[in-house]
Amino acid sequence: MKPHINRDKMKKVTVRAGQHVKLDVDVKGEPPPTYRWTFQGTPVQGLGAKIENEDYNTKMTLSDTTRKNTGTYVLRAENVNGSDEAEVEIEILGMLILFLTDSQ
Q1: What's the distance, CA 68 to chain centroid?
Q2: β partners of residue 43
C-alpha cells in the first residue's frame, strides 16, 4: 500500500521565539514507509531538529526556535509502492521584550 500522511496534524503552527515546536504525524503504508523532513530543500537534522521515526509515525521537534525557523517544512514518506508528501507552515514570532523604567 502506498504511503498516506495524516494531514490532520500538519496544520500551521505559530509560536514565540524560544518555544518548542513538536509535530507528531501518523503515516499509513505497507511496508512501513521511510520518512524525510526538509526545510528549504535541506534535511532538518542538519538544522538542529530532532527526528524520531517509528513504523507508521514520525515526530519532528524544533527546540530553541528563532525567526529563521519560519517557513514551510515538508514531510516525505516513501516505500516500494510509492510516496506521499505534505507541507506544514511554521511561524516563529519575535520575542516579546518588555522594558521597565523607573518612574521616580
Answers
A1: 14
A2: 38
Give domain status of residue 99, yes or no.
no
Which range marks the domain in which residue 77 is found? 4-93
pLDDT digit string, tens, across residues 5-30: 999 999 999 999 999 999 999 999 99
Q: How many domains does the chain have?
A: 1
CATH number at residue 59: 2.60.40.10
Give mean pLDDT, residues 37-63. Answer: 93
Mean pLDDT, range 46-63, rounded to an integer? 93
**Could you tell me which of 53, 52, 56, 74 has the C-alpha nearest to residue 1?**
56
Summarize the chain as % helix, strand, coil (round to 5). Answer: 10, 50, 40
Separation of alpha carbons 69 and 40, rounded Å: 10
Say whether the peptide bond before residue 33 is cis (omega within 30 degrees of 0).
Answer: no
